[in-house]
Amino acid sequence: MTLLCITNDVDDLRSCTIRNEHLSTCENDACTGCLPRPAEQGLLCYSCATKFDEALALSVDLISHCRSIESGPRDTSGVRTAPGSRVILPTSWVQADTLYRALAAVAVAYSVDWRVEEPEWDVTASHHNGFHPEAPIEAVWWVTEILVRYVSDSVDRLRTKHHGAAEAVRYVHAVQTALHAFPLEEKPRRIRHIRCRTCQHESLQWRPPLEHLDPIVIQCSNPGCGALWDPQLVDFDMRVLRQEIEAEMAGKAAA
User: Fold this and answer.
1) How far apart are CA 163 and CA 152, in angstroms?
2) Domain of life, per the record (predicted)?
């Protein structure tokens, strides 16, 4: 029995599907792909698992970045503060709080799923409300690092159960939203040796995997093409290329 990516079983998550592949019942000419992605790492598909790993890798920098700037109008919708005070926070600080709470939700989901202790919490931040308004950036970095380490050490197990896998995907969405509003420098990376299947140019690029609400894709940078490809197709092409090269080398050695 093939397990599907958790996104296909949770109502508030956008379903992960394979680009340009369709269910046999699909009759929508405008559909860009409706065949659900299979789960490959626990209950996460290749795309979700990769994006979650990428999100964890930049979490400390991104959360610290959001907390160290005062960007955007100050949020007047309600504020987390010390008792008896009212501090109105910049939008970027609210974003940092949102990210911390979303990452904390992943950690708590793991602890509940596996009945293990939660991570170490500190007065600098609350997993319900976010950071204390007067927390220095050094403390923000430190408590975020502790939380990231806890989740990173638990990844293999947390993505095998429903609650943890779903919160992992929600965290990816939170990171994508934050990067869209307060971007860190992320540039496409050229893929060498593999040609675009459409235009046959060696012009493929790995697009940053955490662009706003986007799946992971490989895109042709040829101005006359711009075709989008699933990374797994590129992985397949690389395996074929490797086999061809090894066969050529074996033929020369035998000659």
Assistant:
1) 16
2) Bacteria
Reduced to 3 states, what is the DSSP secondary structure of residue 75?
A: strand
- Which residue reads 């319900």 in tokens? 128
Contact 52, 169 (CB under 8 A): yes
Q: What pTM was computed for the model?
A: 0.73
Q: Which residues are registered as beta bridge partners of 75? A: 89
Which secondary structure element, helix H or strand E, spans residue 58, and what is its range?
A: helix 46-68
Give SS3 for 56: helix
Direct distance between the N- and C-terminal alpha carbons of the chain, in angstroms, rounded to an integer: 47
In this structure, how many other beta carbons lie within 10 angstroms of the beta carbon of residue 153? 12
How confident is the model over 157-200, as pLDDT tens digits?
A: 999 999 999 999 999 999 999 998 888 876 678 888 889 999 99
CA quadruple 116, 119, 14, 9: dihedral, nearest 10:
10
